[in-house]
Structure formats: structure tokens, C-alpha cells
Amino acid sequence: MSTRVELRRDAGPVGPHQGPWVRRRQVGKVWGPGDPAQLAELTDHRGQTLAWGLIGPDSEITLRVVSFGAAAPPADWLLRRLDAALAGRHALGLRDDGATTAWRVVNSEGDGLPGLTVDRYGDDMVLQIATAAMAARQAELAAFFAARTRGRLFVVTPAQAGEREGFTPAEQLHGDDARLEFREHGLQFEVPAPPAQKTGAYLDQRDNRRLVAELARSCGGRLLDVGCHVGGFAIHAAALGVDAVGLDQSARALACARANAARSGLAERCRWVQGDMFAALDDAALAGSFGVLVFDPPRVASSARDVSRAAGAMTASLGRLLPRVQAGGFAVVCSCSQHLGGEVLDAAMLDARAGAWTRVHALGPGPDHPVWPGHDQGSYLRVHVYQRR
Ligand SMILES: C[S@@+](CC[C@H](N)C(=O)[O-])C[C@H]1O[C@@H](n2cnc3c(N)ncnc32)[C@H](O)[C@@H]1O
Which fold has domain 77-183? Predict the structure, then answer.
């Protein structure tokens, strides 16, 4: 027996322009078993078919659409989408050329596969399963990826996703000391295997790390990498001859950063400081001026209610850090909170009252992080580059 999700008469517009999520408050009634392992039909209140999708009976998002229109997707839709995601990366030029061996293979809604994120690190694959519907397909997903890698397969669940979405998270398939190794633009990196931080190495910033390194080389001066994780921005800059200081609160991430710099023969160019980016930073390594400041905090606003507090904290930190950037230098200010958009970053720069700045780049993630047009929640990473005037 199939499941039909019937919208309320007053559900508001539902279609490609509104994105793939149908929320519980828009739903009048769910007919049938509500089995997350099966595709469900979405109808308007008169029974007219609008779309097909993945049901989350216990989720605030009742349905994640996989295709709009009356025609049901083919029975092998999942495998077809997975194949298309892999072929899409290949066509983007992401293939194992030895210089870069880590990229996002599946980006959830952006690949028509809501609830599934897959990153590859060399031969290893990390599958992040975030919904009941994808959890119900875990065996099929694991078989698909196991057949396509010689490396290890890690299956992880984001914090609280099981509780929020109503499923039992997969058992984590690795020990505490596991490491993922990969190359990025010719540099060798390792990260703690997930779930230490998200799916591992913030691959969404991969191309920005190289661009910022080039800016640092061209403007001269040191680079200060605040929220450095395993040292990505700092090490890319050091590889271009820039002295760099990385700061993070995670001792585990800093240990990897130190090892990563050493692997590329850049230990002498990098210094690592453990500290709180939202506090006064008075470590001696942070004294003096910098050509580039990278400020890449964690997700500081998880809902619209958090925005003003998070923006205030960013403004206060920027107020302390921006005066250290030399004239002509750059501030790279990042947000990975969907609710903290580019306009909030601009406002924080203005409110920090730290001299004259102009925005020279508005960046996002690389093309291996595609977004379903109309799905605003998929556009979470903003990276603004400002130049001091
Ligand atoms: C979005 S990640 C940064 C990614 C990194 N820039 C990269 O390119 O890989 C945020 C980082 O901030 C660190 N972090 C979180 N809260 C912090 C705090 N209060 N002070 C310093 N670092 C913090 C996390 O450990 C994490 O490494």
C-alpha cells in the first residue's frame, strides 16, 4: 500500500520555486502507512498529484520532494541519481588527478538526494545519513559506494538528526583514532575521521583556500587563520611562501594542522595557537599586523532567532581582529549558517567600526556542492572577502 501526503487547502504555494521541502504545518493528512522506505505521492487538497518524495513521518519536514509532476519516478530512481551525481563530478573536472583527491560526491537536495551527503577522501568515502528515508536505504547506499571504492566506508549521522527525524542512527563504523588522508591542490592533508567535525574537512572551502592563499601572496604580510581546523587556509598560504598563524579551540584539529604542515615541509612557516575566537586574543603569535585575516567560525546561528546574538558576537570579534590587517590587506569573513547571510556579514563589518573596507569577492562553496534552485537552505556558505582601504 502506498502513502499519499495531502496538502491543506491553505498550504500555500508548493512547487519547484518553493523548493523541495513540504512542512508538517502544510499537510492536511497522510494516507497509508507512511513508510520512509517507499516513495510517497504529494497531492493538493483535491487529490491532484503534485510531486513524489521521501516521507519523514516524525520530522517537521514531512516530505522531501525528489520530483515534481504527476509521473512517479522510475523504480531505480535512487541508483540513477547516484550515478548522475558521480557523472556530474566527473564532468566538472573532479577526477583523481593526484593533486586533489577529496570532494563532495553527493550534496543532498542539490543532487536530488535529500538527506544524503557523501564526501570522498582519497579512496575512503564518508556517507552522512540525515533522514529516516535515507536511513531506510542505508544498505543499498552502502552497497553502491562499497562497489566504487577500494577504501573504507564510514557511515555517520549528524548530531540530533536521529531524534529530530525519527530514526535510529547507524552505528559508527570506525575507531577513535581513525584518520582520513587526502590531497588538496597538491598538498597532503589528514583529518580526524568523522564524526569529529561534520563529514571531515570542510571541502566546501577547498577552492577558496587556494584563492585566499594567492591573495595573501600578492598582498604581502602574514595570514591569520581564525577557526583554522586542520590548517587549510594557513597551509595553502604557507605553500606560497606566506608566514601563517592558525587559531582554533580544538586541540585535536590543531594536532592535525601541525602534522599537515610538517607533511608538506611547511612547519617552519606555520604557528598554531589554541584559543577562543570570540574572546580577546592576546597570544604573542597573534601580535603585530597581518596581510590577510580569515575568520571562519562554526555554525553560530541554527535558527532565525539566533541571528542577532550571533551577529553581535561576530561584530565584537571582528572589532578586535580587523585593526590587525594592514592597508591593502584582506579580511575573509565566512558564515556557514544559512540564517547568517551575506547582508549580515556586511553589517558586521560596518558595525565593527574598524576603518574603511570594500567588498572584493562574494564567494560560496565549490561546484561539487550544487544547490537545487529555489532551495534556500542549500545555500548555507557565504564567504565575503573585504579589502582594507
Ligand atoms: C567552519 S570550521 C573552519 C573550517 C576551516 N577554516 C577550514 O577551511 O577547514 C570552524 C572551526 O572553528 C573551530 N571553533 C569552534 N568554536 C570555536 C571558538 N570559540 N574558538 C576557536 N575556534 C572555534 C572549530 O573547531 C572548527 O575547526
Answer: Transcription Regulator spoIIAA (3.30.750)
Closest CA to 258 of 276, 248, 271: 271
Dist. CA 254 → ligand 1 center (Å): 10
Q: Which CATH number fits domain 3-68: 1.10.287.130, 3.60.40.10, 2.30.130.10, 2.40.30.170?
A: 2.30.130.10
556558505: which residue's cell? 381
Looking at ligand 1, which atom is closest to the CA of residue 225? 6
Mean pLDDT of 67-81: 97
Of all residues in the chain, the percent with pLDDT exceeding 70 is 96
- What length is written for the chain? 389
Q: With DSSP H G I counted as helix, E B as strand and the rest as coil, what are the percentages for the chain, rounded to 5? A: 30, 30, 40
**Ligand 1 center to residue 77 CA distance, Å?**
37
Distance 296 CA to ligand 1 centre (A): 6
Radius of gyration of the chain (CA): 22
Angle 10-14-15 from CA coordinates, rounded to 5°: 160
Alpha helices in the chain (DSSP H): 77-91, 132-136, 138-146, 161-165, 206-219, 232-239, 251-263, 307-321, 342-351
Q: Looking at residue 163, what is its pLDDT?
A: 84
Q: From the centroid of its chain, how far is CA 89?
A: 17
Convert the pLDDT of each residue in 351-389 to its tens digit.
Answer: 999 899 999 999 999 999 999 998 988 888 999 999 999
> What span, in angstroms and rounded, lies between the C-alpha atoms of 224 and 227?
10
The binding-site residues of ligand 1, defined as CB within 6 angstroms of any ligand atom, are 202, 205, 209, 227-229, 232-233, 248-250, 253, 276-278, 296-298, 336
Cα of 295 vs centre of ligand 1, distance in Å, is 9
